[in-house]
Amino acid sequence: MGQPYEPDALPRLGSMPDLESGVDGPPDLTAVIPAGGAGTRLWPLSRAGSPKFLHDLTGGGRTLLQDTADRLRPLVSARVMVVTGERHADAVRAQLPDLDPDDLLVEPSPRDSMPAIGLAAAVLERRDPDAVLASFAADHVIGDLDVFADRVRQAVSAARDGWLVTLGITPTTPATGFGYIRVGAALGTEGAPDAHRVDAFVEKPDVARARDYLASGDHLWNAGMFVVRASVLLELLAQQHPEMTTVLRQIAEDPSRLADLWGSLPAVAIDHAVAEPAAAAGRVAVVPAPFRWDDVGDFASLADLLDESPLHPGLRVLGDPGLVVNQGATGLVVATGGRTVVTLGVPDLVVVDTPDVVLVTTREHAQDVKGVVATLRATGRGELT
Amino acid sequence: MGQPYEPDALPRLGSMPDLESGVDGPPDLTAVIPAGGAGTRLWPLSRAGSPKFLHDLTGGGRTLLQDTADRLRPLVSARVMVVTGERHADAVRAQLPDLDPDDLLVEPSPRDSMPAIGLAAAVLERRDPDAVLASFAADHVIGDLDVFADRVRQAVSAARDGWLVTLGITPTTPATGFGYIRVGAALGTEGAPDAHRVDAFVEKPDVARARDYLASGDHLWNAGMFVVRASVLLELLAQQHPEMTTVLRQIAEDPSRLADLWGSLPAVAIDHAVAEPAAAAGRVAVVPAPFRWDDVGDFASLADLLDESPLHPGLRVLGDPGLVVNQGATGLVVATGGRTVVTLGVPDLVVVDTPDVVLVTTREHAQDVKGVVATLRATGRGELT
């Protein structure tokens, strides 16, 4: 079964795609971008009606969704499919004007990741029985694009061999907010020198266990990135949820039935529906992904993503730095309300200024933002969220 | 020369005015309210164009100017005169609709307190050579109105005897932000049992000296409250600034000359122009004023003035408490921007939300707000101030 996994010191690069031309991706491969999210952890910047994938969170001029599509297009000959909710379909069309209308799948209601990715798989399987899909969330930030491209390419090679392949992020901290992937023996598949079997997906750990995982060197973060043949995904799904598989194929065959059938599907995550049982059955591979990755889980993460403002030493600024006046404060200012934001003397501050809400907290309390949103929804002020 | 000063335990009340009727004040007495201010210490709530006297800072529904007039009217048979700048004249008229147009003196340009109060004195002297004026700043908060009324009445009695009378606030802390008044021997004037001579006005002290002053029991805060016969004030002024006195009387005689002559007057405070030299000459009396008094010098003071919000334990809220969402923060929120203000986990916070600026700081840094305003003015963003 090949050699045991040893973590990379530096990534070994395979043949590199041309990131510029956008035409050299393998013809059987489609990128699938599930674009959903509740918009609570970066509230009030992101809202239920405007989740974080619709926002430029890096100050680079492109939204996370656009960045995700930009990153994937060169790897897939521009074949990109987006799955999103009705509420966000217009915004997705506006942000991705080149997206083929047939490649925008609109969910009538949120059903978590399995029905979303499963529907994409069913649609692609009808187009090409050998189609491979590479699914990446719309709201992650990824760096080291050459490494990313190499690892996706390896994952595609393994997927063509019938594996459900995930990319597992090389951990940099004993994070307790992610699930982990325990890496097994090397796969030995041609074109995928870094691919290994997955021993198991493990739940979000406590901090002691997270430290053990980090020290072990054989645990990776589960970032929900999957590369798999569409037919393999549906076959694995059928083993656990045969009815869902049937319904998804019915919708792919006759899209006019979407509205009627969608509501019958259970809301379930792809990890629970397919990845975990398939791993137990020895069907899942992982390609370690030693690139920079961030799911921008809160304002503290967002602050870490941004460079210090040249205009405002000590501050990270998202939005218009010309609106910010700082005297001795440090932290993050999101200046998207069109008003002047003055910060004075407070360390590790988080100020998020929007047209109708201003949030003031500190980085230490960044995770509590979710609770504020829950409180607002519970107290009849959900329209603000 | 009477008995040496001993601080009051409790105020001895003189005959009480009827605070309701507004008609029993002595007919020779006019309240003069200098309504000026740069609007920097409570920025961005107060602005150069809208200084703090135009704002309701106590949440009571009346502005500081209106509160000042309300407090004085019953003591002066409703004879109230306001001196303000051109920029604020319309706002003063709107806030004090009962003010006689002849009792609104409009300065063409700011010249500090001496020309403002001196002009009022010159106008009143022409109306009645024995007129007494009682000058109180438009932007102070005063409690214990019965005590206030008694001490003003005593001051008027002493003023009729020819004294320049000041009310000196009984200190409650070793404050370094105020000048002090060193109290001399009792005056022994009929109708003013608490009046004493002023030994000297002393400059703002350092903290060690302020502690000595507080411990001494014979130092009061100089709050810039003066009660004096108009003719006495002008006579004292003439000893120091004969030219200014002449010009002020010329303007009073022919108000059409105001615009031409005003610019020639030096900008000088009444303390330096008159009170200090007059004290050295033994012409100044003080009535100790053991009532609650606050000049709302910064947002920390403002927070102290306000009660904790019943809706938001730990927070003081000025503006609309319905706009505030708090989870674990303490301090002050000024919610006057029409937007929702969310505060999360930060202690002793100061958030001031206005339609075009939001300020975020802590009570500890409340005094630094002035510096931000200076920076804005120095960097071409004075329009925000």
UniProtKB/TrEMBL annotation, chains A, B:
Residues 31-305 form the Nucleotidyl transferase domain. The keyword Nucleotidyltransferase applies. Residues 325-376 form the MannoseP isomerase/GMP-like beta-helix domain. GO terms for biological process: GDP-mannose biosynthetic process. SUPFAM superfamilies: Guanosine diphospho-D-mannose pyrophosphorylase/mannose-6-phosphate isomerase linker domain, Nucleotide-diphospho-sugar transferases. It comes from the Bacteria. Transmembrane segments: none annotated. Residues 1-28 are annotated as: Disordered. Keywords: Nucleotidyltransferase, Transferase. The keyword Transmembrane does not apply. It holds the Pfam family NTP_transferase. One of its GO terms (molecular function) is mannose-1-phosphate guanylyltransferase (GTP) activity. This is Mannose-1-phosphate guanylyltransferase. It comes from Ornithinimicrobium cerasi.
